[in-house]
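Our collaborator T.R. sent over the components below with a one-line note: 'Predict the complex.' Nothing else. No constraints on interfaces, no templates requested, no preferences about which chain binds where. So this is a plain run: every listed entity goes in together, and whatever single assembly comes back becomes the starting point for the next discussion.
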Amino acid sequence: MKTENKLSFTINLGNYSLESVYQAAYAMLDRLYFYFDKKDQGTLLAEIKPKGKARPLELQALKDEFFNELLNSELRVLVARRTKKIREALIAQALIGASAEKADYSQDPLGIAQPWEEKYGAKKKNDR
Amino acid sequence: MVNGKKKLSKTGASPFYFEPMRGLGTLVTNDWGGWAFLDDADFAAFLAGKIAEGHARYPELAAGGFLLRPSDFISCSEKFAGLNASIFGGTALHIIIPTIRCNQKCVYCHASAKGAGEKQFDMDLETARKTVDFILSSPRAGLDIEFQGGEPLLNWEVVKFAVEYAEARAGELKKTVSFKLVTNLSAMDDDKLRFIFKHRIAVATSLDGPAALHDAQRVYSGGSGHACAVKWIKKFNAARPRYLKRGYIYRITALATVTRRMLAKPRELVDEYLKLGQREVYPRPLNPFGFTGGNWQKIGYTAAEYLAFYRELLEYLIGLNLRGVKIREKTAQTFLTKILGGEDPSHMDCRLMCGAAIGQLAYNYNGDIYTCDEGRMLAVMGDESFRLGSVLDATYAGVIDHPVTKTACLSSCLESLPGCSDCAFKPFCGVCPVNSYFLGSLFPQKANDQRCAVNKGVQKILFEKLAQADSRAVLETWLNAEWYRDGAKARKAAANA
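Returned assembly:
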């Protein structure tokens, strides 16, 4: 009987966040099917299956590549988390700058600087 | 590999993205356009926050906005705004389709063009007038109108009318309009060429390499499409100096659609362009619309095959430039405008948020409005998902506020796309929501996305070349705006006149 070509392993969630695991898996979706399950509180059970043909050694190499990608992902998640506020502040500043350029106060779009008489006409004598 | 969790510094952390590059260390980039290569030791020092004044890499990383100091805050946010300027500028590009008829039948036709005799697919003058009125109702002062098809010269009456009417109305409304014509040149004649020069219409055509290759890909019942293109490119180039004095600043540009047949011939492609005196080559990978899908088995290729072609083409061009031959590659120039110039090239495919509706709009022959030309191409294939209304009854505000416009923005904002939001190439890249939707998911699944593989691959090749001093020196010259527009010459000529 032909056995299915797949590989199971565990991921220590004390070393890697679930976010990084998903991100690393996402980067390799073109080559692998991923199945995840929780083994216990701190351990994730992972199973990979190649989308094309792959010999056991090649599948092992894909697993190794996944763990390298996991390190990259973990770092990306950490950088994003630790720099979130400054990044948001910088981009918000750029957006504010861009809107301020568009709203030219000297054009006075709401007519704030316009004299009352000019805007609504001079008050007639009979008006109260 | 560095274990980020243990070594990432908590102090002085500046947002950055990274990509390991074989043989070059790690490429680090950021949202304000900074980039640098770091070897393993420097990358570890950078992560640990140990690159301070006195460190050899400090000046470069500080200048690139990687070591944020309070004094950098404003300049970095300004650089971010500059790199993404087109997002704040409103819809500039308006594509009018005077007809979807064409006299050529290209194996890859993305527009699913109709036969040359099917005149029911022509725009009429009243629709053209309403289209121009709609375009000019945009709040933008500077507008670009581009004529595409089909073959727009087959409905010349509408092109001519739209140009003259737009010029007149724009003058009344104190707006400026510039024009571009995308044509295969086979229906060109001297009167049309004079009109083009007189009204300062930029011209772009297709040239898929030498005659045998071009004519095999672009079948023309009237003879050789290559011969027509070459004849009019030569005529255009011969006449252009006369009109330069009158302010016509554009060079005729050409693009080449890369099919499997072309993959082995990057040098022949460049040589053909050189023979005609062209100074720019613009190879474009196939997109999935129109006839391409049905012909994919014959003409398609993998991203890796395209990138091998692109690398050979780029290296050939760099070699030519090093020997004093001036010719550049357009895709490289687009990315480099961001990477080296820190500016937004206003390229719809290369934005933090795709230009669909908020950067461009496309108007079909019958007045239907689409988010972009790709959205219109999809409509010709029977899927109206990206239709925003019609010039007959739509308002400009209604189109911009349309749910489809919002969907296109949401699904193409790199900040929110998995695989894009933390990609090292994000500051310079972009996605096409129509392309993603057509391939199965409005939100692209990056690992399976050929377009992503090509964009990322091209940028990796460019960064690799930027790490080599002689190649970088060549690539830097490709940013010069005078390469395409003879602005300085024209100004000088006008001053002399």
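Summary for T.R.: The interface with chain B takes residues 15, 23, 26-31, 68, 71-72, 74-76, 78-80, 82-83, 86-87, 89-91, 93-95, 97-99, 101-102 of chain A (CB under 8 Å).
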